[in-house]
Amino acid sequence: MMKWHDLLSTKRIGEAANAPTGREESPFLLDLDRITFSSFFRRLQDKTQVHPLSVGGRVRSRLTHSIEVASVGRSLGFGVGRKLLEKGTDLPAHITAHDFGYIVQVACLSHDIGNPPFGHAGEAAIQQWFEDHGDSVFDDTMSEAEKLDFLKFEGNAQGFRILNRLDYFKADGGFRMSHATLGAFTKYPGDATTNTNRLIEGKKAGFCQSEKALFEEIAQSLGLIKRGEDTLWCRHPLAYLMEAADDICYRVADLEDGVTMECVSFRDVEHHLAPLAWSHKHGDTIEARRDDLLAQDFYQAKSESEKLGFLRSKAISNLTKATVQAFMDHESDLLNGHFDNELLAVTPFAEEAQACKKFAGQSIFGTRRKLEIETASFELVDVLLSRFCGAMQDLEKAKGDRSAVSQKSMRLLNMMDNQPFDTSSRYHTLLQVTDFISGLSDRAAVNLANVIRGNSI
């Protein structure tokens, strides 16, 4: 059974166990400071949420989405922390309900930090490129597990790599976040060799081989339970709150953006959000609650935009309260590693939330403009990976045999990534290429690909 004393560890990679954080209010506020001021976090302002390359700030970017998820996550963490304290749970003496909120807030702020340009389409494009070109870029020094880091490239694993390798102290602990926050961040505590879709934490990779030993150290510190496989652990309980915060915002905010972008009608969104916005005391069925809200005089008096804001606010509030209660109802299973579901799925709003997800998938995620850009992203990623992986291979030749274009490409990568290029092994060299490309914003990827093709100078 996992214990809260271990799960709330303030240890940090690269620092002494009791090193001062400089933030007396809470040891976890340092995590918040570091993610907030990171360039990787700022890049999310120009990365795809739902609508790629949107203009004018009318809809959410990955940055605004992450901030909203963090707001919901803080409320979830605080709610759970308060209830645990109220029932007399044995917690470290210095921990408050606000600390739970900070841990989940930072995990939520960070949850998309590893996303490549164009989101999931970008992930698929990177995977496809290595599937098509792996025979020419992989070498016999790479293990099969190392190859899978590219063949199954995953933004979650890249996020863990960013937090622990690529900023601040870089190879000496990265952001040096607390173990508690890193545990809450890691939605999938396993590597790409894990192949078990039957378990919620085993569906994707949460770290690369380059960070495997590091995650093992963190997992041991937190007391995470092994899932029986060499490369898979049970989730940190607070990771379920991070996931729930993301799910809540997806279910609700994506529909709001759909109305703004005129992908769906207000009436259709109202139909789906009304049962989430009106609690169960107003009716025994989904239809009864929807009809009761729509008949209210105060609601009818609102404008369409005011109604949309009301529905979003109340739906998030109801889902947040229900999720906190679901966590407490299943705390024992969460600590024993026996919980294998999304928290939203065990709330009284499970059916309504699932209906919103299905509706968004059918009506918003498949718009023509979105599909056009996502299709184009495969070509853009192909241009970038082909140029820089080709230059990387050319760089391994004797100096006089290297092409001029490869040398200039590597100089460009060095300048833009602001660090010398390491050719000590093919695996780590390829990682540096994917670090660079996945770190590009959507527009930066478009612009750089156009420059490489000679279409823009």
Task: Walk me through this protein's architecture.
It is built from 21 helices and no strands. The longest helix has 28 residues, at 368-395. It is an all-alpha fold and 457 residues long. The radius of gyration is 23 Å and the shape is globular.
* Mean pLDDT score: 88
Query: How much of the residues is beta strand, in percent?
Result: under 5%
Helix content: 55-70%
Q: How do the helices and strands follow one another from N- to C-terminus?
A: HHHHHHHHHHHHHHHHHHHHH
How far apart are the termini? 59 Å
Given the C-alpha coordinates, what overall shape results?
globular
Compute the number of helices.
21
Major beta sheet summary: none
Determine the structural class based on helices, strands and strand pairing. Answer: mainly alpha
Number of strands: 0
Helix and strand topology:
Layout: H1 4-7, H2 29-36, H3 39-42, H4 62-86, H5 97-110, H6 119-137, H7 144-151, H8 155-166, H9 179-185, H10 212-222, H11 237-260, H12 266-277, H13 286-294, H14 297-300, H15 304-329, H16 331-336, H17 350-363, H18 368-395, H19 404-417, H20 426-438, H21 442-452
